[in-house]
Amino acid sequence: MATLKDIAKRLDMSITQVSRALNDHSDVNEDTRDRVKRAARAMNYHPNLSARKLVSGRSGIVGLVVPQSDSLGTDGIFLQVVSGLSAQFSGRGMQFVLHLMGETEPVLPVYQRLIGNGALDGFVLIDPQDDDPRVAFLQRAGLPFVVHGRTVPVPDYPYFDIENESIFKDLTDHALSLGHRRIALVNGVAGRCYVTARSNGFAAAVAASGPGVDGIEVFGEMTEAHGLISTMGLFSGRGPAPTAILCGNVRIAKGVYQALEALGLSVPRDVSVMAHDDHLPNLRASAFFPSLTVTKAPLSESWKPLADALAGAIDGRVLEELQLVGRHEFIPRNSVAAPKS
User: 231 lies in which domain range?
Assistant: First the structure.
């Protein structure tokens, strides 16, 4: 296996220069860093992590902790998260490790064990809850982390997020502007940060619209089955049914379409449908019939800013540079119309 000495000899550089280039020190110019890293890859160089830890105080390893479940291996979203983050950290010369915990195992002792062995420089936190206990725990431990979302209105930690509250306020306002007065939101699992934000945006738009507007909200897993079952329930009660349905993601929207078809209802003649689109593989909103109106913020655009923020936190950059908000766009299509008079 190649060593730093071997790389230095090939490039006619000092071992110190090679080491600083591989560790992205700011006093090494970009061309030199690229040349050293290309040589390291070509020579199949792998750093001695124990030596790196002793010299720099860092292992170059960051982690993601998730509960084990039977569906992980077939969950396209989870696989996209892991592959996307792994590629981003690898491109920064860091190693990304996945730790699977038991489904019912308490989460904080898991982090305590991982911190205790000193092998990790930081963590990525995904699927955060409101006031997530992992945040306070890692802050007390003084270990760098980044959150995919915001657990409080004004966070004091690194994060990457999208404007979930304003996205669903805008979707609701769009339905209201067309004359809809009975609007349902088929949301995700209550207590998750993005679900709370979307619920707040929906409620704010309904409240601001004045009397005579009914807002109905249903919570559950972000799945096709949730969309189907929730829609059947919305149209099986004694009260008036909604004329517009907002969906937490495109999976839910697919189930909503199936339920409306089974009920003999047409989109958008009888019911308008809109959704937020994470731009997931093999599920294109434009391929729905009729094509689905969405707000779009590709999940794949999360990995780079999350990796940037965690790497920056490890390097001690100022917090304001590590709090990032992604863009989104509204894409009107054929699934929305004014309600029938």
Answer: 164-299
Q: Are residues 30 and 148 in the same domain?
A: no
Q: What is the phi-psi region of residue 180: left when phi exceeds 0, alpha when psi lies from -120 to 50, beta otherwise?
A: beta
- Same domain as 280, residue 200: yes
What token pair was written down for 51?
């030596």
Per-residue confidence at 49, pLDDT binned at 50, 70, 90? low
- Total domains in the fold of the chain: 3
Q: Domain containing 142 — which CATH number?
A: 3.40.50.2300
Q: Which structure tokens are listed for 92?
A: 């920064």
Identify whether residues 136 and 211 lie together within a single domain.
Answer: no
Torsion sign (Cα): 165, 154, 142, 134: negative
- Per DSSP, the three-state class of 7 is helix
CB 200 within 8 A of CB 187: no
What's the confidence (pLDDT) of residue 54?
A: 42
Tell me, what's the pLDDT at 72?
67
Residues pairing with 123 in the sheet: 63, 145
Q: Which of 69-78, 115-124, 149-158, 256-265 has the lowest mean pLDDT?
A: 69-78
Higher pLDDT: 330 or 70? It is 330
pLDDT at 30 over 70: yes
User: Can you spell out the DSSP letters for 95-142?
Assistant: EEEEEEE-TTS-HHHHHHHHHHTT--SEEEE-SPBTT-HHHHHHHHHT
Same domain, residue pair 231 and 174: yes
Same domain, 112 and 151: yes
Phi-psi region of 313 (alpha: psi -120 to 50; beta: other; left: phi over 0): alpha
pTM: 0.82
pLDDT at 164 over 90: yes
Q: Residue 52: which pLDDT band, with cuts at 50, 70 and 90?
A: low
Q: In terms of domains, do 34 and 149 share one? A: no
Q: Which residues of 31-48 are buried (b: 16+ CB within 10 A; e: fewer)?
A: eebeebbebbeeeebebe
